[in-house]
Specification:
It is a single chain. This protein is mainly alpha-helical. 49% of the residues lie in helices and 7% in strands. It has 14 helices and 8 strands. Strands 1-7 form a two-stranded parallel ribbon. The chain has a two-stranded antiparallel sheet with strand order 2-8. Strand 4 and strand 5 form a beta hairpin. The two termini are 30 Å apart.
């Protein structure tokens, strides 16, 4: 079931991108007609039928740099053009928001309701566009058909895969810091109290059963948290109540996104976003072409406009920053003198990987991950 994690990851990250763009377009006074067109164009590309058909095929989760490249193409399917710095900050916000949502899911199945919350928000953004509403409706049907029959164990496998994707990603966001849901080192603070998932009871009771399943002894223990009774299960209907607030627009209540920077952005993290792994990015080239970006994604038409996403705001201009490592027991190694020697070796390894992949495919007759996407791209 880990091969089914990509659609949930993509839709949730895309939903957060729509939230951020909507808030920043409004905050910077972009005319309503242009802001609406930007959101409609992105939603139209994100949920287009050919793209969804490829997205929902079972496949491995791609790397963060590769997905960043895909979302850059997605953002540039509209008349808006973002500079690399804005795109970096946008992607960091997207990933940290979805990471928090995955961590806070009361049960693995809630991943589906979080995704539906993002889908509901996209539906509201295109409520005046029949074409956009049709695309959202089609996406909703595909989601329900794919995930509604999955067991809790299958959703747990998907959740573990998503957590692995977000592992070691600790970027401080001032909005989270102000709400005290994130510590100064970029790690999220998980609550020990709150509502219980549907179908469960408060912890504190141990039941001992005999070999036929009957309860023969009951023990209780004290718990520190305060738990609320379980609420009803969420609805899968197009306009139903999802129950959970995870996946809704957290910027609607915060008109000014406080994102004060507390240091320089981690250079390694920035470099990984600006220079995606070629082997990972190539797997997403077909998806990028289906989005309509292609090689001409940087071209601005007569109605287009370049957009510095966080310009004009001293706090939002420095959006987020990777959490620094602890200063204790840290050894700093200056490898700058060896960079000229290391680079050729890395290039040799990269060429070997390409060569080995080609040899393996020729000997086994099987496609490597993403090869089907490349074949379809060549056909285009």
């Amino acid at each position: 079931m880990a091969s089914r994690a990509v659609p949930l990851l993509f839709i949730n990250l895309g939903g957060e991108m729509l939230y951020i763009l909507e808030q920043r377009l409004r905050a910077q006074g972009i005319p309503d007609d242009k802001a609406t067109k930007v959101l409609h164009d992105i939603i139209g590309a994100m949920f287009s039928r050919p793209f969804l058909l490829e997205l929902f095929k079972p496949q491995e989760v791609f790397s963060r740099p590769a997905l960043r490249s895909l979302y850059q193409r997605l953002a540039h399917t509209s008349i808006m053009r973002l500079n690399p710095t804005s795109m970096d900050k946008l992607y960091d916000l997207m990933t940290m928001a979805v990471k928090q949502q995955v961590l806070l899911c009361l049960r693995p199945r809630d991943l589906l309701f979080v995704t539906l919350n993002h889908l509901d928000a996209a539906r509201e953004m295109v409520r005046e566009s029949p074409h956009g509403l049709a695309l959202i409706s089609n996406t909703h049907h595909v989601l329900i058909d794919t995930y509604s029959c999955m067991t809790s164990g299958e959703f747990q496998v998907i959740r573990q895969m998503l957590l692995y994707f977000f592992q070691d990603l600790h970027i401080r966001v001032s909005l989270f810091l102000k709400e005290k849901v994130q510590s100064s080192n970029g790690r999220f603070i998980l609550p020990v109290s709150g509502p219980l998932p549907c179908g469960t009871e408060p912890p504190g009771t141990i039941r001992i059963h005999n070999n036929v399943g009957a309860v023969i002894k009951t023990k209780t223990f004290l718990v520190e948290g305060r738990y609320e009774p379980p609420v009803r299960d969420g609805s899968l209907d197009p306009y139903g109540d999802r129950v959970t607030r995870l996946g809704t627009n957290m910027y609607s209540a915060a008109q000014n996104l406080d994102t004060r920077k507390q240091g320089k952005r981690n250079s390694t993290n920035a470099q990984s976003c600006l220079a995606p792994d070629p082997l990972a990015t190539v797997e997403l080239n077909l998806l990028a072409n289906l989005l309509g970006g292609g090689q001409g994604c940087g071209r601005v038409n007569s109605d287009g406009f370049s957009f510095d996403l966080f310009a004009g705001d001293t706090e939002e201009g420095d959006l987020c920053v990777s959490a620094p490592a602890s200063c204790e027991n840290v050894i700093n190694i200056d490898a700058s003198k060896q960079s000229q020697l290391v680079a050729p070796e890395l290039q040799k390894v990269l060429l070997d990987l390409h060569s080995n992949s080609a040899v393996l495919q020729a000997s086994t007759g099987e496609s490597s991950p993403g090869q089907d996407l490349l074949d379809m791209m060549d056909a285009l």
